[in-house]
């Protein structure tokens, strides 16, 4: 390990020295800012072209950042001109900008652009909003204003993002691989898959601005997340004065109904910039499933056939998200953000099981009716500081975060056993569980960015976080007036974890064709898990280094190639470490594993990008100590116990193509094609097992502007046969539709949605458990639904202005 670290540090120094040698040959920079002539606000994403005086051929081009800044590096001595253009503004030319050896840094100061009177007409009639943009280090999926966003939840929209797959328990995969980190506004969510799903399903998709898909993060980001990061950016504080919206909608999945209502108010005046969002949602869903198992023992074979029907309803008081920023001046500001969500779940899982020693010849019938309730609460507070120290972009950000998550859950299990063909009374066995848990998370971080001349940038940061978890899971026999505690299935588990991290990241232009970003992150993890029931204590204390390297080659004005390498890890979430038995029926359990080790990942990638829209990404990923669910079959008792374990290693080789196609003026599409080879090596019953598969996935999203200004969106997805650890997953496909129409000068939007219209999104899985044992299931989670949403937008403000805040990055690990 030490040799590898020294080697990587040596390579980093080598690249930095090469960068320094290349910079010695460069001459100077030209920089400036763009603002609106009426409001004085920065203009972002405007195009600035650099030309030689007297020549119309552009030498370089750049886009302004969120503060309206732009800069050109590596400029040879001479006289230049700037050509500035942006949709909705009049073009502007700046002449006679001189760069010399005596004065290599030239600043044109603040340039004011005048709005064009035809701006709204051009945007409304001639363009369709793009939904996917390929940037240098990430893919950005635009959600704001799309028909599919209206009437849907944040969970629904995330599930239809390019390369994203969400399984039946809410676990997320990216490009066919597990281990994805989910962030909200750059902040880790600190949630298990189940709780994250609860949070996202309680959030309207219309509160989302975009989703960033980062498959190979730099050292600036936490090392957590072996397959990358999905960052959900929410809308807030986008306009001067007061503005906002209110909405109401309903949906029906042909068995249950749900509704959503809420609103957002933004207010910006003087140094204050504030927002308030409230969402009140009733979610309803369930699943229809069949489970088939074969247990082959030494003396007999047992056949297990089960039909299941599950239902749930979740609702609570409105979730509230509020925040404010206060600017002392142009250089310093502070901000606060708070979030509160609580809801109550009522659910059932009803199963009918036939068990026998020959196919279709059962001798036992089990009717198991499970009823559960849970109250989930999430409290989140953030205090933020931003300091700007020069016009180049040198800045310091700092964040303090506190998160408290609680679950108060209980369940009743009513089991009835009927010995078929035997005159015996039906046997009753009633059970009860109480599963309260809570998490307190504290985090502090600081990030410093130093900008140098000629486009060089140094990023430094440090972070400390602490998690305190308490899970008191109790299991009772409930066959008498007084429940009796079952010590064999009860566990009180306490887990504490401290993580200390620091990173350095350097960016520099090596030449006209090549630019480099290299970084190194160090993370020290110290944890202690203790079962108060058994006295078992598990401690961990380890230091890891996570290098990252990115080399960008500009082949031409429209064609770039990005080469990348990074090392990352996936820590077990806190629920996985709890050895408590989670009960589903008398023959099915789930159990945690306190001995789980982190999963480590090496990712090498080459991404080709054409015109910032078309891309082809080639990636190789190697995982060590893969964390995955493992089914264990016990033939003697016909029981299946699902647990989480480390399954040796896996390899993945993939190609992902992003191809936008405009079929006609009013019909745009974005298409994603993934082809990957996935291989898992594990041990089952002391025997090595290899599971591999070539996997295909195609997603096609279409935006169509119909007559009378109706906007139609169509999302189609096909997934080929796949594998994950011991599981083999059958192909499936689905189609979603959205239709949107605006009224009252675009203030009132009506949206109709139909999801999984052909009811084809079945999840059919088989587990490779060896020795002729079978564990297959077919589940449908009622994705087929229809709904509508009405949204009214109001505004007393001025021209929109986006204000970004630097936020915390960390979590996803507070449950099972």
Overview of the molecule:
The protein has 816 residues and is mainly β. It folds into 2 domains: 2-125, Sandwich (Immunoglobulin-like), CATH 2.60.40; 132-795, Maltoporin, Chain A. InterPro entries: Beta-barrel_TonB_sf, CarboxyPept-like_regulatory, OMP_b-brl_3, Plug_dom_sf. Residues 388-792 form the Outer membrane protein beta-barrel domain. Residues 1-24 form the signal peptide.
Key traits:
single chain; 816 residues; mainly beta; Immunoglobulin-like; Maltoporin, Chain A; 2 domains; 29-stranded antiparallel β-sheet; 6-stranded mixed β-sheet; 4 helices; 48 strands; globular; disordered N terminus; cell outer membrane; Beta-barrel_TonB_sf; receptor; Outer membrane receptor protein involved in Fe transport; CarboxyPept-like_regulatory
Shape: globular
CATH topology of the largest domain: Maltoporin, Chain A
Q: Based on the coordinates given, report the CATH architecture of the largest domain.
A: Beta Barrel
- Looking at CATH, the homologous superfamily of the largest domain is TonB-dependent receptor, beta-barrel domain
Q: How far apart are the termini?
A: 31 Å
Class of the largest domain, according to the CATH hierarchy? Mainly Beta
Strand residues, percent: over 45%
Structural class given helices, strands, pairing?
A: mainly beta
Radius of gyration: 28 Å
Number of domains: 2
Q: Percentage of helical residues?
A: under 10%
Q: How would you sum up the major sheet?
A: 29 strands, antiparallel
Number of discrete helical segments: 4
Count of individual beta strands = 48
Q: What is the residue-averaged pLDDT?
A: 83
Give the low-confidence spans.
1-26, 118-127, 799-816
């Amino acid at each position: 390990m030490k040799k590898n670290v020294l080697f990587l540090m040596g390579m980093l120094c080598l690249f930095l020295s090469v960068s320094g040698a290349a910079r010695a040959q460069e001459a100077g920079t030209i920089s400036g800012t763009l603002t609106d002539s009426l409001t004085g606000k920065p203009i972002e994403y405007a195009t600035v072209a650099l030309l030689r005086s007297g020549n119309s051929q552009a030498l370089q081009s750049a886009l302004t950042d969120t503060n309206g800044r732009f800069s050109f590096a590596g400029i040879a001595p001479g006289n230049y001109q700037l050509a500035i253009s942006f949709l909705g503004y009049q073009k502007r030319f700046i002449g006679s900008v001189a760069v010399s050896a005596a004065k290599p840094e030239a600043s044109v100061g603040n340039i004011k652009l005048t709005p064009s009177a035809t701006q709204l007409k051009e945007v409304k009639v001639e363009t369709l909003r793009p939904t996917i943009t390929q940037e240098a280090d990430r893919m950005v999926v635009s959600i704001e204003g799309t028909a599919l966003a209206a009437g849907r939840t944040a969970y629904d929209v995330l599930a239809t993002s390019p390369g994203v797959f969400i399984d039946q328990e809410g676990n997320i995969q990216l490009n066919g691989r597990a281990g994805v980190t989910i962030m909200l506004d750059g902040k880790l969510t600190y949630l298990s898959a189940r709780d994250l799903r609860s949070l996202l399903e309680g959030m309207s998709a219309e509160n989302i601005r975009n989703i960033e898909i980062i498959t190979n993060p730099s050292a600036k980001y936490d090392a957590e997340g072996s397959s990358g990061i999905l960052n959900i950016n929410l809308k807030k504080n986008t306009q001067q004065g007061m503005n906002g919206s209110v909405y109401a909608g309903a949906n029906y999945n042909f068995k249950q109904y749900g509704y959503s209502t809420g609103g957002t108010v933004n207010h910006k005046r003087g140094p204050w910039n504030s927002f308030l969002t409230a969402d009140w949602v009733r979610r309803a869903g369930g699943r229809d499933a069949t489970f088939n198992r074969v247990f082959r023992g030494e003396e007999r074979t047992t056949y297990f056939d089960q039909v299941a029907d599950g239902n749930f309803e979740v609702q609570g008081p409105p979730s509230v998200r509020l925040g404010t920023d206060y600017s002392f001046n142009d250089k310093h500001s502070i901000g606060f953000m708070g979030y509160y969500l609580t809801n109550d779940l009522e659910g059932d899982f009803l199963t009918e099981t036939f068990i026998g020693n020959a196919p279709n010849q059962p001798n036992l019938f089990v009717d198991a009716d499970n009823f559960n309730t849970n109250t989930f609460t999430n409290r989140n507070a953030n205090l933020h500081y931003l300091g700007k120290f020069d016009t180049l972009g040198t800045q310091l950000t700092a964040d303090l975060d506190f998160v408290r998550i609680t679950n108060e859950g209980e369940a009743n299990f009513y089991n009835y056993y009927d010995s078929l063909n035997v005159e015996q009374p039906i046997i009753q066995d009633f059970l009860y569980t109480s599963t309260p848990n809570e998490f307190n998370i504290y985090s502090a971080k600081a990030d410093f960015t130093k900008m140098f001349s000629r486009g060089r940038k140094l990023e430094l940061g440090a972070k400390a976080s602490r998690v305190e978890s308490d899970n008191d899971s109790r299991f009772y026999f409930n066959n008498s007036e007084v429940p009796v505690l079952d010590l064999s299935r009860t566990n009180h588990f306490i887990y504490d974890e401290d993580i200390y991290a620091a990173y350095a990241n350097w960016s520099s232009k090596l030449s006209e064709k090549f630019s480099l970003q290299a970084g190194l992150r160090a993370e020290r993890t110290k944890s202690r898990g203790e079962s108060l029931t058994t006295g078992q204590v598990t401690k961990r204390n380890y230091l890891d280094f996570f290098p990252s390297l990115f080399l960008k080659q500009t082949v031409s004005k429209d064609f770039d190639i990005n080469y990348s390498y990074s090392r990352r890890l996936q820590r077990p979430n806190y629920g996985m470490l709890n050895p408590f038995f989670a009960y589903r029926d008398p023959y099915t359990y789930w159990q945690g594993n306190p001995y789980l080790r982190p999963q480590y990942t090496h990712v090498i990638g080459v991404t080709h990008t054409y015109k910032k829209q078309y891309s082809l990404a080639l990636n190789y990923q190697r995982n060590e100590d893969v964390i995955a669910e493992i089914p264990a079959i016990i033939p003697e008792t016909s029981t299946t116990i699902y647990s989480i374990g480390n399954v040796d290693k896996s390899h993945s080789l993939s190609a992902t193509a992003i191809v936008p196609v405009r079929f006609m003026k009013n019909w745009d599409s974005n298409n994603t094609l993934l082809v990957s080879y996935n291989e898992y090596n594990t041990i089952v019953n002391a025997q090595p097992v290899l599971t591999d598969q070539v996997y295909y996935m195609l997603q096609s999203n279409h935006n169509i502007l119909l007559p009378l200004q109706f906007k139609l969106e169509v999302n189609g997805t096909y997934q080929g046969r796949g594998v994950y650890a011991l599981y083999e997953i059958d192909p499936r496909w689905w189609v979603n539709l959205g239709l949107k129409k605006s009224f009252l000068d675009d203030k009132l939007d009506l949206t109709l949605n139909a999801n999984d219209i052909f009811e084809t999104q079945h999840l059919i899985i088989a587990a490779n458990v060896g020795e002729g044992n079978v564990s297959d299931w077919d589940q449908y989670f009622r994705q087929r639904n229809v709904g509508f949403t009405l949204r009214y937008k109001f505004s007393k403000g001025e021209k929109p202005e986006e204000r970004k805040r630097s936020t915390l990055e960390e979590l996803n690990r507070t449950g099972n």
